[in-house]
Each structure stands twice: as C-alpha cells, then as structure tokens.
Specification:
single chain; two-stranded antiparallel ribbon; elongated
Amino acid sequence: MRVDDLDYKLPEALIAQEPLAERSAARMLVLNRGVLEHRRVRELPALLEPSLFVVNQTRVLAARLRGQKSTGGRAELLLVEPVDGQKLLWRTLGTANKPLKAGQVLHFDDVVARIEAREEGMLRVRFEGNFASRSFESFVAAAGEMPLPPYIARRATAADAERYQTIFASEPGAVAAPTAGLHFDDALVAALDDAGHRFTAVTLHV
C-alpha cells in the first residue's frame, strides 16, 4: 500500500472550530455489512454487542507557553516530554519570528527557559524559577494554554481547559487529547454500562 493513497482534502468549512455542547451528539459514520450509516456517538449502546472499552485516563497539560525572547520578540514553546524527574528539563517544539537556537533565553513571566540544544527538530529547554515554593505543574497550569490542534484556527479559551479533556482524564502528562474519548459523556457511559459493556483504563500520554 502507498501511504499517499490515503491522502485526501478535507474542506476547511467541514472542520468544526467549537465543540458541541453535548459530547455524545457528535456524528459517527457506521459501516454495517457494506452499508454506510450516519449515526450519533450516543447510539453506541444499541450498535454494539456487550464489549470491553479501554479508555485513556491521560490528562492534557496547558502545554502551550507564550513568552518573549531577551530581545523582546515573541516566542512560543510547546512542551512535549520531560527529560528529567523534576520536570524542569523538557523536549519542546518552539516558534518565533526567527528560528530558536541553543543559547537563547526565553522569558515566561518570572520563569526563564534556557535553550540548551536543538535535537532532531526539537529543543531541549531548561526552566529556571522559584520552584521551591510552587511546582512546575502549577506554573504550567497558570501560564500555559491548552494545545489545541493546528486545524483549530483560534486561540484556546478558558472553556477549553476542561472541554479539551476526556471525562476519564485524571493523570496529567499529555500534550494532545485522545480524540475519540472526547465524545464520551457520563450519560453515554451509564447507558453502555446498563447495556452490559465494561470499562477499563490505561494511561498513555499522547
């Protein structure tokens, strides 16, 4: 199979920029014995035999940090993965008006981020600040934004802090939501449970 055979153009007008008020009202395409049906996610209990649902309990960090270079220009980091146990050294993606490079210092309020190296398209960044009185996680929660996908052409809002989480989210560490799980709500889980479906959880940070 050629991977480019799977390429297709999705018109921008068909990409929702805001989530539905009801998670399980999302549309779902069902292939049933060769027949395509347009259904809703909330119809899952009637469409499946009793099954085991494996849900991801990862929680998305407010991983997009907007700050300034020492010269005053704007810069942005996207936290990807901690390198050390204290979570002060991270692999990140970074953007600015000019490519960021090793040796540069970025400022995020009272926290300094020093770029130590560029490795395989990513930046290794060390964060310095008064982390004796607060955790790095609390800094990120206060200063960061939800890292909405690039096809969402708007800034993250306060509402996204919870809406861009699944109802199963409990273990912080992801920088993107496990997308299918975003369509489950408490009512759907209760209906699936009543229909004999079972749930188990794993933690896979995206």
